């Protein structure tokens, strides 16, 4: 299906488990091959074949299962934050330890990441703080398009509200966001429109003027 996300817009993706929401995100980010189609990025047609290519083109992705697919558990907060930028630059052009430290301290401060130090292994942080580190990783690369898959799942109440505020701030700053969520009230709260998926296909699109939890549930059940 055709998916357009404009700068400064939040598009929600809803559907039952197995509807193809996460698979769609993984295709966009180059994790899984697309059956067909192209992406128009910065006015140019692109075929996304790998996460590295997607990242270089300005796409970021925070996966649903952050412990398995997102964080490197034994690595420090600092190492987790700089990972995507280092991959973009290439491993033969290492980011200096001084720059890594400055970057990590800046994002810890800006996103309110609660950690004893930049060197704390990320596995010892709460779910909400791990999610903030993942967001920091991608924001550091200055993406134009960010995909968030279940961004508030498994995080504490305080961090939950902070993540929602951050999503709205990123949108206000002009970032294009695709948010996959089973939390329908959240989607209604921040999305500009919501696409409903079933069997890997778009079956409905609910515009802002008609957006409500019952409208989403009815479209999913139709």
UniProtKB/TrEMBL annotation:
| InterPro entries for the chain | ABC_carbohydrate_import_ATPase, ABC_transporter-like_ATP-bd, ABC_transporter-like_CS, P-loop_NTPase
The reply on keyword rRNA processing is: no
Protein name (record): Sugar ABC transporter ATP-binding protein
Pfam families tied to this protein: ABC_tran (PF00005)
Keyword vocabulary terms for this entry: ATP-binding, Nucleotide-binding, Repeat, Transport
Instruction: Tell me the domain of life.
Output: Bacteria
What residues does the ABC transporter domain cover?
Answer: 1-219
Molecular-function GO terms, alphabetical = ATP binding; ATP hydrolysis activity
């Amino acid at each position: 299906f055709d998916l357009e996300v404009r700068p400064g817009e939040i598009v929600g993706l809803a559907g039952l488990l197995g509807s193809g929401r996460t698979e769609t995100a993984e295709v966009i980010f180059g994790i899984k091959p697309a059956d067909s189609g192209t992406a128009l990025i910065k006015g140019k047609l692109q075929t996304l074949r790998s996460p590295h290519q997607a990242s270089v083109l300005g796409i970021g992705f925070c996966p649903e299962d952050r412990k398995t697919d997102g964080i490197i558990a034994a690595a420090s907060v600092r190492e987790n934050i700089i990972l995507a930028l280092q991959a973009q630059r290439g491993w033969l052009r290492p980011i200096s330890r001084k720059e890594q430290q400055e970057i990590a301290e800046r994002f810890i401060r800006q996103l309110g990441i609660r950690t004893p130090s930049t060197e704390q292994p990320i596995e010892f942080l709460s779910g909400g703080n791990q999610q903030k580190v993942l967001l920091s990783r991608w924001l550091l690369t200055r993406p134009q398009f960010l995909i968030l898959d279940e961004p508030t799942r498994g995080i504490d109440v305080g961090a939950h509200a902070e993540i929602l505020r951050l999503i709205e701030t990123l949108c206000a700053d002009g970032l294009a966001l695709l948010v996959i969520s089973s939390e329908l009230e959240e989607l209604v709260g921040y999305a500009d429109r919501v696409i409903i998926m079933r069997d890997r296909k778009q079956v409905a699109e609910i515009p802002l003027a008609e957006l409500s939890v019952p409208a989403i549930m009815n479209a999913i059940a139709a």
